[in-house]
Amino acid sequence: MAQFNMYYIDPDANAGDGTITQIGDFPTDNMGATSVSVMFDEGKVLQFGGGQFTNTYNPPDGSKKTSIIDLNQDLPVITQVADMNLSRHWADGIVLPDGTVLAVGGSRENNREDLGGVAFAPEIYDPLANTWTLMEANSTPRLYHSSAALLPDGSVFVGGGGAAGSSIPNYPSAEVFLPPYLYDANDNLAVRPTITSAPAEIGYGHTFTVDVSGNVDRVTLLKVNTATHSMNTQNFNELAFQRSGDTLTIDAPTLVTVATPGDYQLFVLDSNGVPSVAAMMRVSHTYTPPPVVEANIVTNGSFEQNDVADGTAGDVEAPGWTTSRPDNAVPTTPSPSGMTTTG
After folding, report:
1. What residues have CB less than 8 Å from 78, skipping those under 6 apart?
2. CA-to-CA distance for 93 and 156, rounded, in angstroms?
3. Is the pLDDT of residue 32 over 70?
4. Backbone angles phi and psi of 249, in degrees to 5
5. How does pLDDT run across 285-316, given as a tens digit for each residue?
């Protein structure tokens, strides 16, 4: 098949006019307007489905192929990984709190009136196992103009689809997908770890604290997404943390290229991969951490020493405390009651 070009766009180069630079070829057919791309890890894009550049009639079957585009190198490195189970034009891709990716909707044919080859069943890609796993089918075709979004409770909203003004059906409805991590081994709702407090805003390169309850094995940060026409604005960050009691001290992202400014969902996950309900927070490049307030033992001295600087304690000439005394240091006399009084 033909090779398809890839480009870097630099909006700040060339005196602000920007530049477009070809950086190589994309080697397989999971590309184009009807394909899905989503940043599922720091500097890594999962690219799947599609197979045509424009929304034209009678295209080739939607691709099952999947690639990882690694942008952490001087030039992108493309690795073809496991194929999807179903062909998909116009699917949506959603990164989940555990770092897996949900492919939902789409069809083998490009939004045909006869709905040929609708992909009713979503599937989940596991980057560690390099596998796609089919999930329970949904009830409604979700094709061109459909949308999906990760909700704070870890479920996924899926809705819409259709093409107004044509003979293709419209679907002004919505469904909610419940991923397997929300259930335990007995198919009951799993017990979740809990975020009890979190900051409303964090900044690049800083640490921040979050109070939690329950077992916490991972902390992940996902940008609040919009998704339509197979494009998704999410990005995913795995955050390092330390725990002391019920408080996590977490390292915020350091680069705007992997965590663009905006609103995010912070999840904590237990050792079984069960996520908390997300804490909503903003990642800001203008964030200023609050000042550290240190308690002063002595402020501007005391009635004994009036020349002690703020935040320091001065030496005071005083006898101090002791747990013993020399013999006969304090004379005593007997009292009629048998108690001893000082003289």
Report:
1. 24, 26, 27, 67, 68, 69, 70
2. 11
3. yes
4. -105, 115
5. 888 877 766 655 444 545 455 555 555 544 44
